[in-house]
Design a protein that fits this description.
Order of helices and strands: HHHHHHHHHHHHHHEEHEEE
Helix content: 55-70%
Number of domains: 3
Oligomer: single chain
Number of strands: 5
Distance between the termini: 32 Å
Shape: extended
Strand order of the largest sheet: 2-1-5
Number of helices: 15
Length: 385
């Protein structure tokens, strides 16, 4: 809703700016035409050097320019633009409050985990000196084991950028079982790229030997890809002309870095997205709601720091949803260990506290709020996600 309001205000400012610019150009064109006409009259006069003729023409020009009155014509559109710009600035200040400290809450963090998250972020980004500094200053040098893992990753990726797939293929072969368990096809993709590179730079015989040595084990599970690769032998030295863009496209090399990073992190048990980056992005997305909540609570003289649970949901995108969260459709409370979700025979789910209220603390049957089913005492059971 807030973004819609801001967009509408921006569209109004944009429209006023275009009108003002159009009007300015129109007035400038009018003034230019009058000046050009005056110059033509001076040049076409019987005696262009005559002061009398020049003075008469210039006098007429002044009268025409005064009639156009450019300042008066531009004043109106410019005032409207300035007014809308002022309103837009105030709107932005209202929605994007720069004092984000208002949404701060005292939370007891595990400093060991926080230090690891920070160091892991820098190692994953390839900023190894920064990661080392964080851990050394925190007095946790033993956590530098993360460095060696990500150092290997960056060496493999850097080699792949130079189209040297040997380190990546060696890594994929070493971690073949883990990659299979994850359903990854990265080893096949690497061998495909290497095969096509051999076919482009070498001979058909070299490519056939490579296929028999490294691609043959993948044949039973990937027959179609294998058949297309073999057909590419007809285009030795000119792979770009092969009619199989799905396997010969240069975009495979462009996407290889991201794929390798994703698979490498998966094998290590790390998320592809840096935990620090995800936390900051989620915080930025949820910050407007939190700031608005703090403002409302402050007006009602309620203590923000004393709250154990937010009274309103903070909507985040699907990329920030990593596990199931149940919110009771009756009480709107989020499920917890003290108030877990309970499954009824009709397959509808409520939180335990809502169930207890409806059943008068488990003393009588009640009707499901969402269907005609009659729920007897003890017919519900705890649901685990």
């Amino acid at each position: 809703m807030e973004l819609t309001t801001i967009k509408d205000a921006f569209d109004r400012v944009n429209k006023k700016q275009k009108l003002s610019s159009s009007k300015s150009q129109e007035v400038i064109d009018q003034v230019g035409r009058e000046i050009e006409q005056a110059l033509e009259k001076i040049q076409s006069a019987d005696d262009p050097t005559s002061p009398f003729d020049q003075k008469s023409i210039l006098t007429d020009l002044v009268l025409e320019l005064n009639a156009i009155d450019p300042l008066h014509q531009l004043e109106g559109p410019q005032k409207e633009l300035n007014l809308n710009l002022s309103k837009y600035q105030k709107l932005l200040e209202r929605f994007f409050n720069p004092d984000i400290s208002k949404a701060y809450r005292n939370v007891d963090f595990d400093l060991h985990i926080v230090n690891q998250i920070l160091a892991s972020h820098f190692y994953q980004e390839g900023l190894f000196d920064l990661g080392d500094s964080i851990l050394n200053e925190a007095g946790e040098p033993e956590a530098t084991v993360l460095k060696s893992q990500f150092l290997d990753m960056h060496q493999i990726i850097e080699a792949a950028r130079l189209r040297n797939l040997e380190p990546a293929l060696k890594w994929a072969s070493t971690n073949r079982e883990k990659l299979k368990q994850n359903g990854s096809k990265i080893e096949l993709k690497l061998h495909q790229l290497q095969f096509l590179d051999v076919l482009q730079k070498g001979t058909r015989a070299d490519a056939v030997i490579y296929a028999r040595t490294y691609l043959a084990p993948f044949y039973s599970l990937h027959k179609k890809e294998f058949q297309k690769l073999m057909c590419c032998l007809l285009w030795a030295g000119r792979i770009g002309s092969a009619p199989y863009p799905e396997i010969t496209s240069p975009s495979h090399w462009e996407n290889l870095t991201e794929e390798l990073t994703r698979e490498f992190c998966s094998v290590l048990g790390h998320s592809y997205g840096s935990p620090l980056g995800v936390a900051i992005s989620a915080g930025i997305e949820g910050l407007p709601t939190l700031l608005k909540l703090v403002s409302v609570m402050s007006a009602k003289k309620q203590e923000w720091q004393a709250m154990k649970q937010l009274p309103v949901p903070v909507e985040l995108g699907k990329e920030f949803q990593f596990h199931s969260i149940f919110v009771c459709p009756v009480s709107r409370d989020q499920g917890s260990e003290e108030n877990p979700p309970m499954l009824m025979p009709c397959s509808h789910v409520l939180c335990k506290q809502s169930m207890m209220k409806l059943s008068k603390s488990g003393t009588r049957s009640f009707k499901c709020p969402y269907c005609p089913a009659e729920i007897s005492v003890g017919q519900w059971r705890q649901l685990y996600f």
